[in-house]
Amino acid sequence: MACQQSRYHSFSSASRLQPRPSGVTIDESFLTEDKSTQNRKLLQKRRTLPGQFSMGGHLSPWPTYTSGQTILQNRKPCSDDYRKRVGSCQQHPFHTAKPRYLEELENYLRKELLLLDLGTDSTQELRLQPYREIFEFFIEDFKTYKPLLSSIKNAYEGMLAHQREKIRALEPLKAKLVTVNEDCNERILAMRAEEKYEISLLKKEKMNLLKLIDKKNEEKISLQSEVTKLRKNLAEEYLHYLSERDARKILIADLNELRYQREDMSLAQSPGIWGEDPVKLTLALTMTRQDLTRTQMELNTMKANFGDVVPRRDFEMQEKTNKHLQEQLDTLRASYEEVRKEHEILMQLHMSTLKERDQFFSELQEIQRTSTPRPDWTKCKDSSSLSPHADVVAGGPDRWQMLAEGKNSDQLVDVLLEEIGSGLLREKDFFPGLGYGEAIPAFLRFDGLVENKKPSKKDVVNLLKDAWKERLAEEQKETFPDFFFNFLEHRFGPSDAMAWAYTIFENIKIFHSNEVMSQFYAVLMGKRSENVYVTQKETVAQLLKEMTNADSQNEGLLTMEQFNTVLKSTFPLKTEEQIQELMEAGGWHLSSSNADLLNYRSLFMEDEEGQSEPFVQKLWEQYMDEKDEYLRQLKQELGIELHEEVTLPKLRGGLMTIDPSLDKQTVNTYMSQAFQLPESEMPEEGDEKEEAVVEILQTALERLQVIDIRRVGPREPEPAS
Hints:
Elements: H1 2-14, H2 29-32, H3 35-46, H4 80-91, H5 100-118, H6 124-141, H7 146-269, H8 278-306, H9 312-370, H10 396-404, H11 409-427, E1 430-432, E2 449-451, H12 457-473, H13 480-492, H14 494-510, H15 515-524, H16 530-550, E3 557-559, H17 560-570, H18 576-585, E4 597-599, H19 614-638, E5 645-647, H20 648-658, H21 664-675, E6 694-696, H22 697-706
Helix pairs in contact: 5-6, 6-7, 7-9, 13-14, 14-15, 16-17, 18-19, 19-20, 19-22, 21-22
């Protein structure tokens, strides 16, 4: 065997494969090459192998021809059998050697594996590459078995590719599974912490109740011990008074005896006693003895009947004490029963709370599973970060905190849209003209580019205020859009009027949260009548005038009673809840430190951007709510659907029903707006033409929503059934 191994090593070293060509390397790119490229590279590598397969020039059937020989295993080197085997090996050296082609392939495989092991980033795919090459050599050399071997190789390669794709597809799922697992673990820990906190609170409450019960039990035991002690003292006092009574009786008996002896002695010593009749004295003595016997019997009877009787004064005193103790005992029993019932109620409440907590927890899980996550509004104030939201809100966290204070998610979305829109407006230098179409407002009809004047928000607000002042200063017969364009021509000249019209229109279209801009935009686009703005301003001015009249000392201060009285006198149709809302909007809370006087003038001030105080905003909100409620009552009174038609008499009757205080002029104004008819062409009440005037109810209500429609007087109460 040693001879065979040495000959094998020498033969293999002599016939070692040539080194790999410099252009052929093992990397993962080989796995993605096409079939022709792989075959070409394998052919180049195969040329490095000798063309002689075995010693005879053909494939040797080794080791099949040595099947008749015995392979030595576990033999001692120095044994005779071993020497014989070595001799036979030396005599027949070429009968047991491996074929040269097999040795070359093994050496080639060993060399490739050693080269891969020397690398630092060798993978299992790379370690399969030498085996692929050896298998390709076999496929190319064994022409007869080439189809079978190729199908075997393709089947394994297809399965490996399928498994590789499946592994790649599962990698993101694995990462997602890890993320979901961490998220679920965090939620579970948070819920456990919350439950632990609730359990600790309930345990503390339970301990407090147990302590209270123990305290009441201790008080009960102390009272019982006190009652026992008092009973013992009563018994002792009774025995003491009984002994005192017996001693007193004995003392009285001794005193009587001494008195009798003294009388006997005085009778014996008196000189005149001997002059009495002995018979008479004997009879007196007998009668006296009988009286004594009778008295003694009565005394014994009294002792027998009233020996255990307590004196009335002591009895009443003890009875009073006992009654007081009984009352205390009844009070303690009632308190104990009340505490016990409260404890049972608390236990029931605790059990119901646990059930509600479990129910809410399940609902929370369902909501968390199905609901959309709420936006993280804190991103908008992180101006120091490089997030995409950093440049949306100018001014940093402080300005965002001021903008987001007291607003819900819907309002925050409007704020963000305004900030984004204002940023886009600042970037634009020109506006494209909208043309001369009929749908385009008259003040925007222009074709071409219009310059963006880029005014500040404060400048736009001041310009709109000046426009309102000029509009209200004198009666204007032209429409509001025409007045607006004429105002811009007078202010900036005909050349810049169109540019300012586009600039102001784009600004007021974006800033919905600004009162001045939103109201001006609504009036300009015909969504609201300018009478609404005028009436609201007159209402605020009238309220300020009433408060000023109530301030007799002209100090700018009002008491809560004066403020409440002014509100009720100015708005007699508002409910108590609405009056309370106005007082709270004015800053009058019961918990306020300065609950005595209110600076009413500060309620009507505006900031530099035209924003009014919460008090005036609350007045506007109540006005819009009252208008919606008024129209809702009108629709309910009409009793028809929104898509149905309503006639003029029916709408007039509905208005007079819900608001009997309406005068004829106001009703005609409402009718003219609802049916889009001039007041001069309105048919008289009772005319046959009234029935011919119809309109869709929804359209009529939308038109009434535009004008200043409000309740004039209270609605008459319905008669009781």
